[in-house]
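== Protein entry: sequence and backbone fold ==
=== Local backbone shapes as whole numbers ===
==== Amino acids and backbone structure tokens ====
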Amino acid sequence: MDFGFTAKQQAWRQQVRDFLGEELPSDWRGMGRSFEASDEGFAYSRQFARKLAQKGWLAVSWPKEYGGRAASHTEQTIFNEEMVYNRAPNVVGIQYIAVAFVGPALMIYGTEEQKKRHLPAILAGEEVWCQGFSEPNAGSDLASLQTRAVEEGDDYVINGEKLWTTGAHHADWCILGTRTDPTAPKHKGISYFLLDMKTPGVTVEPLLDLTGSHHVNHTILQDVKIPRTQMLGEKNRGWYEMATTLDFERSSILYSAGARRSLKELVDYVKETKSGRKRSDGATTIRHRLAELAIEAEAARVMAYRVAWMQDAGKIPNYEASISKLFSTELSQRIFNVGMQLLGPYAELIPDSRWAALGGEIPNSYMSSIPATLAGGSSEIQRNIIATRGLGLPR
């Protein structure tokens, strides 16, 4: 098997790198998690996203009929990898749900009116989306969601609450899972809606993560009226449409790209700093551990490209996407765990400290890597998918 890239793909990667080299300062280390979460950071990221939109780069793999460049999924993955590895302003964060989840779901399940309304706006970087799936008692067991949508004439009236809605405080729209038939088996009575976040009755309350940053939210829906025309797909078939959306989410290269960049910085730190050399000289175990992580990071990268290859081949990745998501998110935890050990006392210092090593982002990344194994389906859920759909084991 050839694990290399074609000349066209290599040229595309270089084109993206050249663009980032021109746009980002030579000493660029990224925006930092706290700044990314701020209103100022969001505005900066959105401005950067619009630059990409002007180049036609926000959704390069979308079909030309929807305004994309009809590039391969592999080329889209290359783009995403370079953006994350080079820590471009949080384009992947603020536009990723719209471009990678909502757009493809609309292309498959959306009406012509829905496509015309949303796809051009997403492509131009004008619409930011969030995902309203998880609830207080429906996270890993998402099919247990209880948010109700009740028909009322030409509308649905929705009541319930959602947890961990990333970016809801900035989002224009939300993809929303609701229960439309409470008497049906839990996988059978769910419907999928497109929710305008400015609709009366929508309240967004901030939830601070372990780093003290505001990325996720508690979204409360009280007598929210949504037109029937904003249902995505068929009534009571929402579970299957949501599952397709989650497969798009789990097939990304984002975690492995970020892990490779952080690992490189840890290795450089050990090589270049006195404290790093002191901890590593003669420490064969540490050197072997870093080498092992480097191998795992490359394996995670190949897993993500395997998913992209399957999509290019017209196949639908399912358990393969779960393998990639599971391995990459748990790898991130292992890398930042080792990072905390390597930094020693410096691992306690946050970005605001003048003495913080590596900009203080290692402890932040360590803490944010913990919920990464829960978001998008917990590691336990991924293992169940791999076991049943991949290995054919009984439930």
